[in-house]
Amino acid sequence: MPNVEIIGFPQSTYVRVARMACEEKGVPYDLKPAAPHSPEVLAIHPFGKIPAMRHGDFELFESKAIGTYLDRMFPGPRLIPEDPRIAARTEQWISAVNTVVDRTMIRTYGFSYIFPKTADGQPDRTVIDEVMPAVREQVDILDKAVAGTGYLAGDQFTLADINLMPILYYVRNLPEGGAAIAAAKNLSAYYERNAARPSFKNTIPPPPPRQQSKADERKAEAAA
Ligand SMILES: N[C@@H](CCC(=O)N[C@@H](CS)C(=O)NCC(=O)O)C(=O)O
To answer: Which of 44, 69, 119, 167 is most buried, by the most CB atoms less than 10 A from its CB?
Structure first.
């Protein structure tokens, strides 16, 4: 059987989830960098999102489904534990993070730095100021969630932790988000401990691709 292929840019938090799942399970994989909506991605994912996965003649999309497939297909530590309650707790946090935390912390806060829609390409202060109360509230919720055992589900590292760590990585590196996480003692300790895992270290993303600002476009037009 050929190696698992993880298709998508390594800067994507969700691509990193799929890669970390491979690393935690000890599954050999090939990363095939590809942009959302590129032909390689659209060949598998009807909505063009990354990651997509190929394993022999089996193709799959959605990071949660990919993590579950890897967990059931391969030996190695369980990413979704057998215990029904811990499994349900794992699913609960994946779902909550994907529907709420990702939207706040990455698509809104992170993107206002990485892909600002401002005319001069500077971070979008209006968006940042508007979203920070929600970022702080969610950091506080996550801080409480990991306070008991140091993990999101049960007392072991699961797919729920894999799913959250790539988000914290970006937020921690931004000024307001970094300060919010630093003030959350349980979440900071959680991050530091899990950031030491080989699966996290081996998947550190390169810097995000720089998007052209309106000012860049004007400069390029003037130079043409
Ligand atoms: N629910 C999907 C979300 C994947 C996702 O939104 N990926 C982003 C990159 S981090 C993407 O492809 N965005 C492009 C788009 O939404 O069109 C998953 O878990 O795989």
So the answer is: 167
Ligand 1 site, residue 12, Cβ cutoff 6 A: yes
pLDDT tens-place string over residues 69-85: 999 999 999 999 999 99
Beta carbon of 104 within 6 Å of any ligand 1 atom: no
Centre of ligand 1 to C-alpha 163, Å, is 13
Q: What is the DSSP string of 133-154?
A: HHHHHHHHHHHHHTTTTSSSST
> pLDDT of 157-188, one tens digit each?
999 999 999 999 999 999 999 999 999 999 99
What's the CA gap between 204 and 138, in Å, rounded? 24
C-alpha distances in Å from residue 114, one per residue of 10, 11, 119, 169, 224: 15, 11, 14, 14, 26
Domains of the chain with CATH codes: 4-73 (3.40.30.10), 84-201 (1.20.1050.10)
Tokens of 73: 């297909």
Interval between CA 165 and ligand 1 midpoint (Å): 16
What residues are paired with 4 via a beta bridge? 29
Strands 4-7, 29-32: pairing is parallel
